[in-house]
Hints:
74% of the residues lie in helices and 0% in strands. The protein is an all-alpha fold. The chain has one domain. Helix 1 (6-18) packs across helix 2 (24-36), helix 1 packs parallel to helix 3 and helix 2 (24-36) packs across helix 3 (38-59). It is elongated.
Amino acid sequence: MTAYDPCAHCEEMMQPYMDRVLTDTERAEAETHLDECTYCRKRYHFEEKLRQFVRQVGQEQMTVELKTKLAGLRTPLQ
């Protein structure tokens, strides 16, 4: 039997927490752990910044040259 690891459990709940799909009880559990655990809190802030970056980049227009270069990197489906 594996011992309960609150950080592993928090990691499993991280994306659902950020997506706001947890129950009130699960959300409270995650927030309590994030308040108490520096490591998981740093991971949360990293994930939050990563999501912001991805949203920002997704809104920027690509140049024709970059689109052409990316299209050339695609592997054809077989």
